[in-house]
């Protein structure tokens, strides 16, 4: 079992909290994000939980220059944040640096859907989601951005190659939900 886990691009902490619920209390979980308002929200959620997430801490940090010592973590996770990094290779290299030898990287991210599902999915992503989300949230531009970043993101095989190029080994990719999402696992 891991002793130290880093969740990069933690946002409001939902993944860090979910990991805390599934892992033993001895596992130290650090949620890191460069956006202070998101970290404030994460800390507020933690405070409301009345000590339930005692093994979770949050700190500011940029995924392109992680403010941690070399080889500090056994596991590093990032969920739906890698596609927002300005330089994926640099971010992946930083993640590798932060992991101890033998450490595990887990990347959950949007991917390219299976060929038969692609026309339906991209119609939804381009036409329906931005309009519907714009009506509900009043922020259509955020969902237009989401659409562009998903369409430009590499497929599972190409992202696996990018992870290898950053120095990781034992890279495996698992498509989920008709390939819309993929879980990549790799070892330092």
Describe the structure.
With 188 residues, the chain is an alpha/beta fold. 40% of the residues lie in helices and 27% in strands. The protein has a seven-stranded mixed beta sheet with strand order 3-2-1-4-5-7-6, with helices on both faces. Helix 2 (36-48) links the parallel strand 2 and strand 3 (56-60). Helix 4 (118-137) runs antiparallel to helix 5 (140-152). The longest helix is centred in the C-terminal third of the chain and has 20 residues, at 118-137. The two termini are 16 Å apart. The mean pLDDT is 93.
Instruction: Profile the largest sheet.
Output: 7 strands, mixed
Estimated radius of gyration: 17 Å
Helix tally equals 6
Terminal CA distance = 16 Å
What is the average per-residue confidence, as pLDDT, rounded to a whole number?
93
User: Which regions have little confidence, pLDDT < 50, spanning 5+ residues?
Assistant: none
Instruction: Give the spatial strand order of the biggest sheet.
Output: 3-2-1-4-5-7-6
Helical content, roughly?
40-55%
Structural class: alpha/beta
Strand content: 25-35%
**SSE order:** EHEHEEHEHHHEE
Shape: globular
Could you tell me the number of beta strands?
7
